[in-house]
Every structure is written in structure tokens, then in C-alpha cells.
Amino acid sequence: MPDGRTPQPTRLEMSGWQNEEDAAMKKAIFVLALIMGVALVAGPVMAQTAPTSVVLKGNPMGGVKFDHAKHQKLVGDKCDTCHHASKPEKAMKAKQEKCQTCHEKTATAPMKTNAKAAFHDAMAKKGICIDCHVKEVAAGKKAPTKCTECHTVKG
Ligand code: HEC
Ligand code: HEC
Ligand code: HEC
Ligand code: HEC
Q1: Mean pLDDT for the chain?
Q2: Residue whose C-alpha is closest to residue 90's, from 104, 75, 76
């Protein structure tokens, strides 16, 4: 370089640059806020909330009052104790969904597991609910294993 100096911007030019940067930054913040706003509105629709307690219905013997909050505490973060991963025959729309959305009273192909089989086998000796209850009872705790201890809610 002939005089060994790089040209310095004038104050005017500098403030010009800053204003451009400011404008770009403001635009970026606005776009970000817009995205976050949309996420806030859409959030509750996409992420389901876990019920505190539900009555699982279908059996004419009676519905099953299921304390979701209590059971959730029992498994900690192992939600997949009950909520299995998505399967190809009928894919999940969310990480956790109501079982009976897919497991209907009568399973229609390609589904083969009906509502009953989703919860327990024909004699209610095995299944996600019963397996754990049997273990709990063996350990001296009280958890329902008989038909009439679970199917209690009339109407
Ligand atoms: C002991 C079994 C069990 C465990 C463990 C469990 N859930 Fe559930 N959950 C269920 C059942 C059964 C239903 C269906 C309730 C219904 O049909 O209304 C359900 C429903 C839900 C729903 C509502 C879905 C909807 O579309 O309405 C959410 C969300 C959920 N569970 C989240 C969780 C999370 C998160 C965990 C772990 C921290 C968890 N669950 C652990 C059995 C369980
Ligand atoms: C989005 C649909 C969907 C939801 C919701 C769903 N399942 Fe399933 N489930 C399936 C599919 C698909 C299969 C595999 C095909 C079949 O067995 O019918 C399956 C299979 C099963 C089986 C058979 C054994 C196995 O793992 O292959 C059990 C038991 C079961 N589900 C229990 C449950 C329970 C309990 C819930 C609720 C906590 C639940 N499912 C929620 C779709 C679903
Ligand atoms: C990880 C082990 C485990 C699993 C899985 C499980 N339970 Fe339980 N359940 C228990 C225990 C432990 C108790 C006793 C809790 C108490 O007395 O405080 C219980 C109690 C109950 C009761 C008695 C009323 C109450 O809330 O105390 C019902 C009804 C019940 N469970 C239904 C179910 C159903 C339906 C499923 C399957 C969707 C299920 N449970 C899965 C451990 C489990
Ligand atoms: C640990 C609790 C538990 C026990 C014990 C239990 N069930 Fe169930 N059972 C359920 C749940 C939860 C469902 C799903 C809700 C429904 O379909 O009624 C179910 C579903 C059923 C269904 C299917 C109803 C339908 O929707 O088509 C039948 C039939 C049934 N049970 C019979 C029995 C019989 C008979 C026994 C005793 C030999 C028994 N159950 C013991 C929890 C239990």
C-alpha cells in the first residue's frame, strides 16, 4: 500500500452501517418473535397433556378408574412402560396417545391387538397393567389383580 494506511470510514458512513445493522437486527428479532408466537399458539395442539385421572371404558362389567398421575410417578420418566413406540401398522401422531384411539373393541387389519389385548390377555393374567400389579403384590403391596378390583366404575 502506497501510504501504509487503510482508508478509515467517516463518522457518517459508520452511523450508516450501524443503522443498516440495527434494521437487520430489528427485523431478525421481529421474525424470531413471530416464530415464537406461532409456537406458543400451536404448542398446546401438538404436545398432549397427560390426564390426572381417567376412566377407561369399554367393558360392560365396568370402567377402570386409572390414576394417571400416580402411575406416572411410579415409573418416573419411563413412560414407555405403557406408551410403546410408534409401529408401522398405525403410526403415532404424538409421543403419547390414548390407547383406544388405535386399539378398538374389534381390531381391523392391519391392526390385530384389540382394546382388551392392549391392556391384558384373555384371562387377565398378563399384560402391561397386570404384570406390574402381580410383582407389586408379590412384594407385599396392594395393587388390583382381579377383574372386579379394576372394572369397578358402573355406567
Ligand atoms: C401405567 C401406564 C402408564 C404410564 C406409566 C404412563 N401413561 Fe400416559 N396414559 C396411559 C393411558 C392408559 C392413557 C390413556 C388415557 C385415555 O384413554 O384417556 C394415557 C394417556 C396419556 C396422555 C394423553 C394422550 C391424549 O391424547 O389424550 C398423555 C399426554 C400421557 N399419557 C403422557 C404420559 C407421560 C409423559 C408419561 C410418563 C411420564 C406417561 N404418560 C406414563 C397410561 C400410562
Ligand atoms: C397410534 C396408534 C397406537 C396407539 C395410540 C397405541 N398403540 Fe398399541 N399398537 C399399535 C400398533 C400399530 C401395534 C402393532 C399392531 C397390533 O398389534 O395391532 C400395537 C401393539 C400393541 C400391543 C401388542 C404387543 C406389542 O407390543 O406388539 C400392545 C399390548 C399395545 N399395543 C398396547 C398399547 C397401550 C397400552 C397403549 C396406550 C398406552 C397403546 N398400545 C397405544 C398402535 C397404537
Ligand atoms: C409400574 C407398575 C404399574 C403399572 C405398569 C400399572 N400399575 Fe396400577 N398400580 C401400581 C401400584 C404400585 C398400585 C398401588 C398404588 C397405591 O396403592 O398407592 C397400583 C394401583 C392401581 C389401581 C388401584 C387404584 C389406585 O389408583 O391406587 C388401579 C385401578 C390400577 N393400578 C390400574 C392400572 C392400569 C389400568 C394399568 C395399565 C394401564 C396399571 N395400573 C399399570 C403399579 C402399576
Ligand atoms: C389391572 C386392571 C385390570 C384387571 C385386573 C382386569 N382388567 Fe379388563 N381391562 C382393563 C383395562 C384398563 C381395560 C381397557 C378398558 C376397557 O376396554 O374396558 C380392560 C378391558 C377389558 C375388556 C375389553 C372391553 C372392551 O373394550 O371391549 C374385557 C372383556 C375385560 N377387560 C375383561 C376382564 C376380565 C374378565 C378380567 C378378570 C379375569 C379383567 N378384565 C381384569 C383393566 C383390567
Answers
A1: 83
A2: 104
Question: Is the C-beta atom of 59 inside 6 A of ligand 4?
Answer: yes
Q: Which domain holds residue 120?
A: 54-153
SS (H, E, C) 64-123: EEECHHHHHHHHCCCHHHCCCCCECCECCCCCCCCHHHHCCCCCCCCCCCCHHHHHCCCC
pLDDT at 73 over 80: yes
Asked if the structure places residue 116 within a domain, the reply is: yes
Give the chain's domain count: 2
Q: Is residue 59 scored above 90 in pLDDT?
A: yes
Q: Is the CB of 82 under 6 A from ligand 4?
A: no
Examine the pLDDT at 10 and tell me if it is beyond 90. Answer: no
